[in-house]
Amino acid sequence: MSQENVEIVRGIWDADRRRDVEAVRAAYAPDVEWEDCTGLWGDWGVARGPDGIQEAWRRWYEAFEDVQMEFGEVAEGGDNVVVTYHAHGRGRGSGAVVDQAITLIWTLRDGKVVRIRGYGDRAQALEAAGLRE
Question: Is the pLDDT of residue 73 over 90?
Answer without folding.
Answer: yes
